[in-house]
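Quality-control log, excerpt.
Job 1 of 2 completed; input and output follow.
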Amino acid sequence: MIGKQVKKCRLDRGLSLSELAENAGVAKSYLSSIERNIQSNPSIHFLEKISLILNVPIETLLYGSDATNDLSGLDKEWIQLVKNAIESGISKEQFREYIEFNRWKKEQLHP
């Protein structure tokens, strides 16, 4: 399943196997073995690199595109906040860092 999703996303973006491997900093042979389902359990680090270049959430690679299209658990205010963050230029990485900082801060206050 993961290999199929990686290949689908790669082709959707018009990237060759070589281009994706080079841009993500992974071995072309390993990427090929993932796409052909010879290797079926890639590391989260590998998935992070690939998802970054493909500009898709890791969940898309794990579960398919439908997994990230289900926003039923979010109310309109959350969706608008995310849209505002994107429009303001906040990157996904900056947003992740903010969340991690808040978790750390909470742990410091309530060990």
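Job 2 of 2 completed; input and output follow.
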Amino acid sequence: MMSKKPVRIYFLCIQNRCRSQIAEAFAKHYGKDNVIAESAGLEASDIHPLTVEVMKEIGIDISNYASNKIDMKTFMASNVIVKLCESLVERCPVVPFGITNVQWNILDPLEHSEGNIEALRKTRDEIEKKVIDLLKGMNVPV
């Protein structure tokens, strides 16, 4: 049986310090070799220490991840673009025909709860469910 090409997923949010990083980590964790997952922000900033911490709690180490600014080559080469926040809609490049455009409106727990770790855990769990559903929807074994 021929192996399918991995699905390329690009997770985008404004700063690439929390939500899109978590989504990238879960896509890699569950999708394994069937997924090439990357994340970026319209602005690059540092990954928030609490983001690293809430992922470590469930055994996923993202301490070596870096915050990236959106890259148009990666954007155009993706099969799926996932926007994790509403404010991205106006500011994000238009997703071309043929690329699946997914919108998840997930509040930034760092902004809306002053970095309360409980809020980050809730966001992490919400993103985990969404990533699993996304992968299943694309017939990626999880």
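Post-run check on job 2. DSSP finds six helices and four strands in the chain.
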